[in-house]
Specification:
binds magnesium ion, 8-stranded mixed beta sheet, D-amino Acid Aminotransferase, Chain A, domain 1, 8-stranded parallel beta barrel, binds adenosine-5'-diphosphate, single chain, 5 domains, alpha/beta, Dna Ligase, domain 1, 36 helices
């Protein structure tokens, strides 16, 4: 294997092998941009090194060969005393991991070559010693784990002794002294002298970069960002160019467009007389890039030309790092730049306008997660609220409320009508009631896979976690940050998108993008660039997608909203929601019925109520399919809790009162108690054991449809039977339903489909048989996931999912994104066998996965006809379905 690539041998498509930095350095080199010569050691070499703990055979020789070539190109030898070549040793993985791994500059300097470097620079001792002290500092810290702040302290002391706080005021002698101090620090912590052999420096630095892949913070970052753990990093060895040679030199960073708004212009920072790491470290204040035009017009013009070349070449926003050495511009890094969600849409639209990309490509430049971000309400920051801290945005949204520090108080205050934010160091299952009661959750520890983050995302609740500057004192009911204290009851505002936490109530703005989807903001009338871009890209997604998108909705109001958001029907109308509220009593009567008459009377009272609900929904979804699921959950969910009832009855008995009805209820609740209700009497099983229940529902649906048709509408009902595991179950329900349909729709004016959910694994495995009796399948992926894995969602998300995520058993909760290998396999089987048995079988999905971006791509791949999701997610599913299709 070839382990080392000269820049001339690589290109931008080799990022897995050369890392992003290496691949793009090669690309810039190949398109003729000024990149200092160098070479890249592959990620494969890193993996081999990490697996075996030593350099793979042949690597050392290859490095030597490439170093020779570099030395010839530069006309200098690494660290040679009279005229040294210096290099940087830079990490660079396939995925950008900002600040996570290591870079060492000025490798090759030692007690002898420092003088040679000074001579190269025309007798510039200050520059040479500044470079040397930087090497010892970076090498010590990143290669030998010397605590960085010891170097910082020594630097501060030197500045103090000089009576300055600007490192530029330190002269050559000061820096020479500092180097002595640094060497002592180095020796104290490593038990050896700072290595003087340039080749040894290089070798140790390369190993340190390899090993930085497994540094704690890198491991943690990858887990948070769901980057695979086994990729390894590449190592770039690059000839040094010097921005610290004087005021005609400097270093900077720039974007080809504004990464926040997408606006074109000059965006960046510049720092004269400095080396690259100074910009990031914030040692001195940078100046806006525009200043460079005044300082060094020729370099500035060069830079502008190069940025235009890069945009044209990458056809996208790029960010860059550059250094100017005595008026000569060098490119040190570029990549397609990260950007905000809004900028992603705007830039994609702009690039289409500029003729750089087409609309298909524009679809690839945005994604559903970004669209989701744009749909959350945002904080209005125009009043510049007081930012307390920044953590990890773990679950998006803008939440405002009183800080509380325990679940009990959260519940109590929320019950009194207060909005609260639950603040904890970290959360555990005991905090669940408080999390439910809170508007938002804030923790000082843990990342995107912590308990707080996982549970909050599952609940769709705003969450910021890992705000580690917060000192949370749960007992004292307060937290402190930067000397400020927030007591229980103080209002804070938490932004789950950016991770920022503010003191006080920050006003919340509705999202323009939602207003557009709702139809209250006309994209042709506004000059909001974001809305225009979203409109354009959504229209293209709609034109391209093959999947239809429906909504899950149980009411006329939700259905109307879903339709405005672009839903092409309803994929799941849950009838049980229609059994709650003041209708609960009717359901109780049904359950308590001792005789057929009592039962029929209860059903007769429910019938018109259900029918009216369906009329509403059919009206809002006129002309579009509406899938109505017959009653699904265990009946006891409609009854009072066993404990409460038992207490009621006991109290009544004590008082010598007649508990009458409650007593009957109690007996019924006892009778219906189940150890595993999710696997008990529910779904189709209910329909088969309670005479008349499904019949009443079917009648209500069909009568509503007939009524709508009579009023001139076009209802398209689809009756869906839940929890079927065997075709015989479906056949039984179907036979009864067909009799009712024939009876009610005597004139044939309404077409009614009958189908089933596929949510029991056995149904997927016998789908060929089931398709004989079903006109459609709808995958209930929530239950299918629960039953395929054998765990109940309500119990596991809080109890141990965080641990599973930590251990990498899954990278993401299978309830958030479809488990392709397991649950997905069941779906594929059902699609194939169902369609084989019945070619015109309609296939859809109605679990929450229907609105999850990755899952939508999977459903597209397996060839479903539609996905159905909550109304708010409909635009996200539309966009992702479009992206899947181009
Ligand atoms: P990161 O990935 O953290 O940005 P880099 O490897 O890009 O780390 O290097 C850190 C800084 O050092 C950057 O500002 C970069 O421009 C600068 N740098 C890296 N290599 C060289 C070099 N050969 N000459 C001059 N500056 C360099
Ligand atoms: Mg960099
Ligand atoms: Mg289900």
């Amino acid at each position: 294997t070839k382990f080392v690539y000269a820049f001339s041998e690589g290109n931008k498509d080799l990022r897995e092998l050369l890392g992003g930095k290496g691949a793009n350095l090669a690309e810039m080199n190949n398109i003729g941009l000024p990149v200092p010569p160098g070479f890249t050691i592959t990620t494969e070499a890193c993996r081999a090194y990490l697996d075996s703990g030593s350099q793979p055979a042949g690597l050392a020789e290859e490095i030597a060969t490439h170093l020779d070539a570099l030395e010839s190109a530069m006309g200098r030898k690494l660290g040679e005393p009279g005229d040294p070549l210096l290099v940087s040793v830079r990490s660079g993985a396939a995925f950008s991991m900002p600040g996570m791994m290591e870079t060492v500059l000025n490798v090759g300097l030692n007690d002898a070559s420092v003088d040679g470097l000074s001579r190269q620079a025309g007798g510039n001792d200050r520059f040479a010693w500044d470079s040397y002290r930087r090497l010892i500092q970076m090498f010590g810290k990143t290669v030998c784990e010397v605590p960085g702040d010891e170097f910082e302290h020594a630097l501060d002391a030197a500045k103090q002794a000089k009576g300055t706080d600007n490192d530029l005021d330190l002269d050559a002698d000061d820096l020479r002294g500092l180097v002595d101090g640094y060497k002592k620090i180095f020796a104290k912590h490593t038990g050896r002298e700072f290595p003087q052999d340039p080749k040894e420096q290089l070798d140790l630095a390369i190993r340190a970069v390899f090993e930085s892949w497994n540094a704690d913070r890198a491991v943690l970052y990858r887990r948070q960002e769901r980057i695979p753990a086994d990729l390894g990093t590449a190592v770039n060895v690059v000839a040094m160019v010097f921005g610290n040679l004087g005021s005609d030199s400097g270093t900077g960073v720039a974007f080809t467009r504004d990464p926040a708004s997408g606006a074109q212009g000059v965006y960046g920072d510049y720092l004269a007389n400095a080396q690259g790491e100074d910009v990031v470290a914030g040692i001195r204040n940078t100046v806006p890039l525009q200043e460079l035009e005044r300082l060094d017009k020729a370099s500035y013009d060069d830079l502008m030309r190069i940025m235009a070349t890069l945009e044209e070449h990458y056809k996208d926003l790029c960010d860059i790092e550059f250094t100017i050495e005595r008026g000569k511009l060098w490119m040190l890094q570029t990549r397609v730049g990260k950007r905000t969600a809004a900028a992603a849409f705007i830039i994609a639209g702009q690039l289409v306008d500029e003729g750089v990309i087409d609309l298909d490509e524009a679809l690839h430049r945005v994604n559903g997660a970004q669209l989701a971000q744009l749909m959350f309400p945002r904080f209005d920051l125009s009043a510049e609220p007081d930012q307390l801290a920044k953590g990890i945005g773990a679950s998006p949204g803008a939440a405002v409320g009183k800080a509380v520090f325990d679940a009990q108080t959260a519940k109590e205050l929320a019950a009194d009508g207060d909005d609260v934010i639950l603040v904890r160091r970290e959360t555990n299952p005991d905090d669940l009631p408080g999390m439910i009661a809170a508007q938002g959750i804030l923790t000082s520890r843990g990342g995107k896979t912590s308990h707080a983050a996982v549970v909050a995302r599952g609940m769709g609740k705003t969450c910021v976690c890992g705000a580690d500057s917060l000192d949370v004192d749960v007992r004292g009911r307060r937290f402190t940050v930067d000397g400020q204290t927030v007591e229980q009851g103080d209002v804070i505002s938490v932004d789950g998108t950016t991770g920022k936490i503010y003191l006080g109530e920050v006003p919340v703005q509705p999202s323009e993008v939602v207003r557009y989807f709702e139809g209250t903001l006309d994209p042709d009338q506004t000059d909001d660039a974001l809305v225009k871009a979203v409109h354009r890209i959504m229209s293209h997604a709609d034109a391209k997608r093959r999947l239809a998108v429906r909504a899950n909705s149980d009411t006329g109001t939700d259905s109307a909203r879903a339709r405005r958001f672009g839903a092409q029907g309803i994929g799941l109308c849950r009838t049980e929601h229609m059994f709650l509220g003041d209708r609960r009593e009717l359901v109780e009567r049904l359950i308590l019925a001792q005789t057929a008459q009592e039962r029929e009377a209860a059903l007769a009272d429910l019938l018109p109520l259900q029918r009216a609900d369906f009329v509403d929904i059919f009206r809002e979804m006129d002309g579009l399919p509406v899938t109505i699921r017959l009653i699904d959950p265990p009946l006891h969910e409609f009854l009072p809790s066993l404990e409460e009832l038992a207490v009621h009855v006991a109290v009544a008995h004590e008082r010598g009162e007649d508990a009458g009805r409650d007593e009957k209820l109690l007996a019924a609740v006892r009778r219906m108690h189940e150890e595993n209700p999710m696997l008990g009497l529910r779904g189709v099983r209910l329909g088969l054991v309670i005479p008349g229940l499904f019949a009443m529902q079917v009648r209500a649906i069909v009568e509503a449809a007939v009524q709508r048709a009579r009023d001139g509408g076009t209802p398209r009902p689809e009756i869906m039977v839940p929890l079927v595991g065997a075709v015989q179950e479906l056949e039984t329900v179907r036979a009864e339903a067909e009799r009712i349909i024939a009876d009610v729709v005597a004139d044939g004016g309404v077409e009614v489909l009958i189908g089933t959910m596929i949510e029991v694994p056995r149904a997927a495995l016998t789908s060929g048989q089931i398709a004989e009796a079903a006109q459609f399948f709808s995958f209930g992926t929530n239950d299918l996931t629960q039953m395929a894995w054998g765990f109940s969602r309500d119990d596991v998300e809080g109890a141990f999912f965080w641990r599973y995520l930590e251990l990498g058993i899954f990278g993401i909760s299978p309830f958030e994104s479809i488990d392709r290998d397991g649950v997905g396999r069941l779906i594929r089987i059902a699609v194939d066998e169902g369609r084989a048995a019945r070619p015109d079988l309609k296939l859809g999905v109605c679990g929450e996965h229907g609105g999850d971006p990755d899952s939508v791509h999977f459903f597209h791949e397996v060839g479903l006809d539609y996905v159905s999701c909550s109304p708010f997610r409909v635009p996200i599913a539309r966009l992702e379905a479009g992206r899947a299709a181009v």
